[in-house]
């Protein structure tokens, strides 16, 4: 069930739109009201200028917010026409932003030690949640993976939050563990006792992480960021199969109990 009690449609302005790699970008948007409402794991639906011929907006997870400036950060990867046009937006350009949408992360009340696993731009939907956990006194371990060192663009921000570098893995061995991020998850589960796990990244990675954490008896949740059309639950285009039936990723999720997801 969607926890959003109101949807706000606001005009936002691009403050910055920086290329971090050839495909990864970080945008800062200034938007009235929405940054103060958004919670970790939720997303916004953006109408991109120059795409008036495309009726549908594009969903973007909120990476971080600055309440004083009423801004939000968006970490995204260029994969198609919409995100390519998004990467071309310049400071001062205006967009329409609908939000905040979806269920946020919610750790069990008695959580003392958490394992967060992120892959690629999956670092964005978990960062605000990591901030909340740290602020609540939870001991947080972050395991982060990417194809190559240059793609570990969120590592510095997580390092500042944690006070130490996350456990890092790269597919090509250019930094940290040479191999999949799931290798580090197995390693961390063998070395420590966790009572909560959260994961966001490619579906195959999340499936394995869910399996390993659940086998270890850890309460485990995932962010199922399916392809979306309407973003508000009307079109049924982002269905996730669960043990309780089909659910909409946009408003019933994107956060799901990993034990209920039918992989």
The chain-level mean pLDDT equals 91
How much helix is in the residues? 10-25%
Instruction: Write down the oligomeric state.
Output: single chain
Helix/strand structural class: alpha/beta
Query: Distance between the terminal alpha carbons, to the nearest Å?
Result: 20 Å
Describe this protein's structure.
With 263 residues, the chain is of the alpha/beta class. It is 21% helix and 33% strand. The chain is built from 6 helices and 16 strands. A 7-stranded antiparallel β-sheet has the order 4-3-7-1-2-6-5. Helix 5 packs parallel to helix 6.
Q: Which tags fit this structure?
A:
single chain, 263 residues, alpha/beta, seven-stranded antiparallel sheet, seven-stranded mixed sheet, 21% helix, 33% strand, globular, disordered N terminus
Question: What are the SSEs and their pairings?
Answer:
Layout: E1 8-19, E2 24-30, H1 34-37, E3 43-47, E4 58-61, E5 64-66, E6 71-77, H2 81-87, E7 94-101, E8 113-119, H3 123-135, E9 139-146, H4 155-162, E10 167-170, E11 177-178, H5 181-191, E12 196-200, H6 203-215, E13 219-223, E14 239-242, E15 245-248, E16 255-257
Parallel strand pairs: 8-9, 8-12, 9-10, 10-11, 12-13
Antiparallel strand pairs: 1-2, 1-7, 2-6, 3-4, 3-7, 5-6, 13-16, 14-15
């Amino acid at each position: 069930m969607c926890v959003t009690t109101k949807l706000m449609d606001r005009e936002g302005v691009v403050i910055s739109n920086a290329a971090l790699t050839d495909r990864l970008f970080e945008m800062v948007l200034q938007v009235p009201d929405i940054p103060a409402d958004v919670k970790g794991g939720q997303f916004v639906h953006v109408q991109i200028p120059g795409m008036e011929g495309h009726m549908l907006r594009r969903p973007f997870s909120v990476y971080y917010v600055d309440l004083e400036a009423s801004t939000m950060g968006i970490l995204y990867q260029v994969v198609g026409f919409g995100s390519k046009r998004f990467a071309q937006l310049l400071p001062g350009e205006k967009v329409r932003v609908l939000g905040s949408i979806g269920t946020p992360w919610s750790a069990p009340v008695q959580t003392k030690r958490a394992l967060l696993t992120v892959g690629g731009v999956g670092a964005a939907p978990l960062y605000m949640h990591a901030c909340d956990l740290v602020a609540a006194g939870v001991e947080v371990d972050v395991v982060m993976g990417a194809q190559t060192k240059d793609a570990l663009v969120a590592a510095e921000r997580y390092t500042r939050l944690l006070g130490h570098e996350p456990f890092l893995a790269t597919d090509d061995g250019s930094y940290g563990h040479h191999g999949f991020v799931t290798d580090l998850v197995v390693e961390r589960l063998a070395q420590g006792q966790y009572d909560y796990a959260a994961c966001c990244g490619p579906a195959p990675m999340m499936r394995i992480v869910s399996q390993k954490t659940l086998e270890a008896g850890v309460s485990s949740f995932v962010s199922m960021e399916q392809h979306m059309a309407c973003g508000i639950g009307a079109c049924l285009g982002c269905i996730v199969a669960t043990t309780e039936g089909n659910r909409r990723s946009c408003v019933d999720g994107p956060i799901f109990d990993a034990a209920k997801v039918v992989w």
